[in-house]
Amino acid sequence: MIMKLTEFNKDLLKLYINYKEPELFHLYEPEPGVFIAESPNVISRAIRAGYEVQSILMNQDLLKRLDFCQTEDVLSQISEDVPVYVLPEDILAENIKGFSMTRGMMAIFRRKKMQSLLELCEGKSRIVVLENVMNPTNVGAIFRNAAALHMDGVVLTNGCADPLYRRAARVSMGTVFQIPWTTFDKDTQAVDIDALHELGYKTVAMALTEDSIDIMDNRLKSEEKLAILMGTESAGLQVGTVAQSDYRVMIPMSEGVDSLNVAAASAVACWELGKNNC
User: Fold this and answer.
1) Which end of the chain has a smaller Cβ tally under 10 Å, C or N?
2) Are 211 and 181 contacting, i.e. CB atoms less than 8 angstroms apart?
3) Res 160: pLDDT
4) pTM strictly above 0.85
5) Cis before 163 (ω within 30)
6) CB atoms < 10 A from the CB of 124, how many?
7) For residue 278, what pLDDT is reported?
8) Is domain 2-110 in CATH 2.60.120.620, yes or no?
């Protein structure tokens, strides 16, 4: 239901402007809350993944350019009772900080109930595990790498940035809606190594230690189930996580360079350790 507005109605559009993302997360507790998705591409992926859209807010110019973007695809996927609020771009830019980054479209979605670790890992041989990766840009990039490079799922500790935060979803190009993910059942900021072992995974800590093996080591490729552990941007994985892991693995680098950004490292790790999972 397209509703063309001539002014920004702050009451009608309050979810887009009055709440920080953690507040949207908790909006309907104890039920799952909502999140904001940006850009026609990301919104379309969320709809296709089965997320319930509550409303859409868009630049009126997109209605004139259906052949040049994914707007038509988005509108064709929603029911007629979903409100689509349409406003001139200058009014949207004046009232919504960062609207220029949205490619002219935003949407409010209800969150889904999160899978348990057991449910997520069923039938999956290669997963990425993130420990306290706090930068949404890095989380989004890692999800995109994992989805593209043959990983089956992603598990996060509670210290990680929410994959459904606007920036994370945008950087992932919507792959946060494509690849299955969950958090550990325990309220912890450390990787639950025991839980992964119980599910049959050998754990691979991406860490530079004295006993680290080359990421191309054939022992890794021969393992039936691998969980690839990656740590926070500054300190990496926690000492206890590294010590408990089955393997400590390094990416060979040129002299004088000892590390990569966690998102870049994830691309190398997913590609090399996911080859047998194509």
Assistant:
1) C
2) no
3) 94
4) yes
5) no
6) 16
7) 60
8) no
Q: And the tokens for 273?
A: 């350790």
Mean predicted confidence (pLDDT) in 20-49: 94
Residue 208: both structure tokens together: 């530079």
Q: Where are the alpha helices (DSSP H) in the chain?
A: 14-17, 21-25, 40-48, 71-77, 89-95, 117-121, 136-148, 166-171, 193-198, 218-222, 239-244, 262-274
pLDDT of residue 73 exceeding 80, the answer is: yes
Write the DSSP assignment of 221-247 as a string of letters.
Answer: HH-SSEEEEE-BTTTBS-HHHHHHSSE
Q: What are the sequence ranges of the domains in the chain?
A: 2-110, 117-277
**231 vs 234: CA distance, rounded Å:** 8
| Residue whose entry in the numeric block shows the structure tokens 């960062």 | 98
Token pair 């994959």: residue: 163
| Structure token digits, residue 87 | 């406003």
- What is the distance between the alpha carbons of residues 127 and 122, in angstroms, rounded to a whole number? 11
Cis peptide before 30 (omega within 30 of 0): yes
Which two three-digit tokens encode residue 258?
């000892």
The DSSP 8-state label assigned to residue 276 in this structure reads: G
Statement: residue 104 has pLDDT above 80: yes
Of 235, 272, 233, the residue nearest 250 (C-alpha): 272
Q: Name the class of domain 117-277.
A: alpha beta
Exposure of 67 in the CB half-sphere (CA atoms within 13 A):
0
CA separation for the pair 37, 257 (Å, rounded)? 37
Phi–psi pair at 276, nearest 5 degrees: -80, 5
